[in-house]
Each structure stands twice: as C-alpha cells, then as structure tokens.
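If your schedule permits, I should be very grateful for your opinion on a structural question. Kindly check, if you would, that the fold set down in the tokens agrees with what the sequence suggests. Thank you for your consideration; the sequence and its tokens are set out here:
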Amino acid sequence: MMGARILIVDDEVQIRRLLRVTLAAHGFSTIEAPTGKDAILQASMARPDLIILDLGLPDMDGAEVLTQIRAWASVPILVLTVRDDEAGKVYALDHGADDYITKPFSMSELMARIRVALRHVAREPDEPVLHIGPLMIDLARRIVEKDGEALRLTPIEYDLLKTLARNAGRVMTHRQLLHEVWGEHNYETAGHYLRVYVGHLRKKLEDDPTSPQLILTEPGVGYRLAADRDDTDVIPPG
C-alpha cells in the first residue's frame, strides 16, 4: 500500500524526524503529533492509513489515546513502547493496538511491521460473503455483522475471524493461525498475540464470552469456529 498516509505520534523530535525521513524514503506520506490530544485530532481530521503511537506522551497516557481512537476507527495502530515484558505488550494489545515495537527498535523491523499492518486493511476484491450461524462476513467490503448488527473489528481481529471463517468447522492450529494472520516472517514472535486477540473477538462475538459457543478452544492444538455444514453459506460476489 505504497503512498499510504502514516500518523507519527511521539513527543521526541529526533524520533519523529527519523521516522519521517525513513517513511518518506519508502514512499509514505506522514503527519506528526507530539501529544495525545494532537494525535486524536489528527486521527479524526486527516484519516491516516496507519498510526505509529508512542505510549509515553506528555499530556495523557497512550492507552487513553488508543481507547479514544478505537471508539470510532479501525485504523491499524502500531505502538512504540519501552515495556519489554510480556505484561507490557499484552497491556498495549488489550488497549487496542494491532502491533508493537519495543524501543530501541530497528528501522527494518519497523518497516516490515508496517507492511504487514497495511496488508491487513487492503481491499479484497471478488471475495464472497460468508454466512456462518449468526455471523455475516462480507470479505470484499470487510464488513462483519452478528444477527444483522454491524461489529467494529480492528484489522487483526478481522483477519483472525476471516481465517477461522474460511475454515469454519475445522480446527486451525496455533501455528496455522499465526502464519495466516501475522505472516511467515513474524508469526514465530507473535505467539502471545493469539490468546489476546481470541479474547477480543469473543468479547465482540459471543453472547457470553466466558462460555464461548462460536470460537471454540481445542486444548493444546488451536481454535475452531463452530459451524455445522448446513449453517455455513457462501454467496459468490456479484
């Protein structure tokens, strides 16, 4: 998705300059915000294709920025954090991040993560509409409904549901899901993501997330989207 517009949110001038120059060299345009309030304003006015967000902002916690943007937008948000422990990473994901990079970071890794995130939101033409139990998933328009009510999913949540839906009724192993959603170059380092995002999906899809009926756990193996063969209907495009 070359030419995508990226919002850089960081209070360090040097970091913003480094990101601006590097992203421009790769064909991206950038917008900058040094504070959380500026980030929320720019996200709503400029409608960026991706946000790079530092959690350590001078005016408000980065988690609050995530929460406010997530209330109305599904734009991919890549968090920059100094938290190098699993709890810190899960914290970022739980507050709406799609991915994270730990400071200090390498620019090559950052660019790879950006490319993966942008692929998640690329349009998928000539894809069918899936009807699975109470769910309707329009793959071409990236629309998900449950019992006729639209659901707002982040790009990662959508890709995870799409992968499970395309294989409804079949067990998808942890390795298969990580490879499909996070890509061949990132899935080995994203193992802890899967549990977090399955939890996110269950909160949005299940009537009772503590007793899931749609996304079922296959202990020690993976997950399965529950659907009897007769309940799964594929409508071709057009």
